Automatic annotation (TrEMBL), chain A:
It comes from Pseudomonas libanensis. The lineage of its organism: Bacteria, Pseudomonadati, Pseudomonadota, Gammaproteobacteria, Pseudomonadales. Its EC number is 2.8.1.12. It holds the Pfam family MoaE. Keywords: Molybdenum cofactor biosynthesis, Transferase. This is Molybdopterin synthase catalytic subunit. PANTHER family: MOLYBDOPTERIN SYNTHASE RELATED (PTHR23404). Pathway: Cofactor biosynthesis; molybdopterin biosynthesis. InterPro entries: MoaE_sf, Mopterin_biosynth_MoaE. GO terms for molecular function: molybdopterin synthase activity.
From TrEMBL, chain B:
NCBIfam families: moaD. Belongs to the MoaD family. This is Molybdopterin synthase sulfur carrier subunit. Keywords: Nucleotide-binding. It comes from the Bacteria. It holds the Pfam family ThiS. One of its GO terms (biological process) is Mo-molybdopterin cofactor biosynthetic process.
Length: 150, 80
C-alpha cells in the first residue's frame, strides 16, 4: 500500500495511470477523487483549511488500508490526502484500488473512503461569506461506514 | 504519572491550547477528560460526540492509561 499526506496538489489522472503501470496482472482500477466544492450547507465557500493530527493521520490511514488489503485481493492500494489551504475545484483526496477483477476494486475503494470519513483525523475549516467555520461531521458518514461491519 | 494531552480543530480553538501536560493518577482516558471538563475553558470536552485517541490510535473513553501516554481529544473527523 502507499499512504501519502501532503500539502502539494496532485494530478488524479497520473495517479490512476500509476495504479496499473507496473503490473500487467491488474485488470481493474477503481479510483475516487474528492474535490473542494464552492458551496456547502447554504453558504458560498471561497476556500478551506485542512487540519490533521501529524503522526496519527498516517497510522490511521495505514490501518484502514491494511484492513482493506486483508478483506479483498488487491494488487495495489493508494491513499493520498492533502492538508493545509485548499481552493474550490482542487482535489483533496485520492483513493485507488487495483485488483485482477472489478468487484474487489469497487468494494475496497468504497470501504477505504467510508472508513477514512469516520476514522482518519482530518478536520475541514471552510472560509464562507459569513466567515470561517468548522465543518460538522455527518451521521450519514457513520451509516456508510457501519455497512461494512467490524 | 504524566500524560501529554492534545486538542485539535474546534476543540483547540475553544480551549485556547494545542496541548498540555497533566500530572496525577489517571486510570483511563475518561479520567483525564473528567479532570479537565469541569473547568469552563474546557467545556467542549463534555460534548457527547467527542472522539479520543491514545498513543495516536482511536479508542473509547474507558481505555486504560499508562504513564507517558499521549491522549488526544477532538470533534468528529471531517476529512475526505
Amino acid at each position: 500500500m502507499a499512504i501519502r499526506v501532503q500539502i502539494e496538489a496532485f494530478d488524479p489522472g497520473a495517479e490512476v495511470n500509476a495504479m496499473h503501470a507496473a503490473n500487467v496482472g491488474v485488470g481493474a482500477v477503481v479510483s475516487f477523487v474528492g474535490y473542494v466544492r464552492d458551496f456547502n450547507d447554504g453558504r458560498d465557500v471561497s476556500g478551506m483549511f485542512l487540519e490533521h493530527y501529524p503522526g496519527m493521520t498516517e497510522k490511521a490511514l495505514a490501518k484502514i488500508a491494511l484492513e482493506a488489503e486483508q478483506r479483498w485481493p488487491l494488487l495495489k492500494l493508494e491513499v493520498l490526502h492533502r492538508i493545509g489551504a485548499l481552493e474550490p475545484g482542487e482535489p483533496i483526496v485520492f483513493v485507488g484500488a487495483a485488483s485482477a477483477h472489478r468487484q474487489a476494486a469497487f468494494d475496497a475503494c468504497a470501504f477505504v473512503m467510508d472508513y477514512l470519513k469516520t476514522r482518519a483525523p482530518f478536520w475541514k475549516k471552510e472560509n464562507t461569506s459569513d466567515g470561517a467555520r468548522w465543518v460538522e461531521g455527518r451521521d450519514s458518514d457513520h451509516a456508510a461506514a457501519d455497512r461494512w461491519g467490524q | 504519572m504524566s500524560i501529554n494531552v492534545l486538542f485539535f480543530a474546534r476543540y483547540s480553538e475553544a480551549i485556547g491550547l494545542d496541548s498540555l501536560e497533566m500530572e496525577g493518577e489517571f486510570a483511563t482516558v475518561d479520567a483525564v477528560r473528567q479532570a479537565l471538563a469541569g473547568e469552563p475553558d474546557f467545556a467542549v470536552l463534555n460534548e457527547t460526540s467527542l472522539m479520543c485517541a491514545r498513543n495516536q490510535e482511536l479508542c473509547s473513553l474507558d481505555e486504560p492509561l499508562q504513564a507517558g501516554d499521549e491522549v488526544a481529544f477532538f470533534p468528529p473527523v471531517t476529512g475526505g
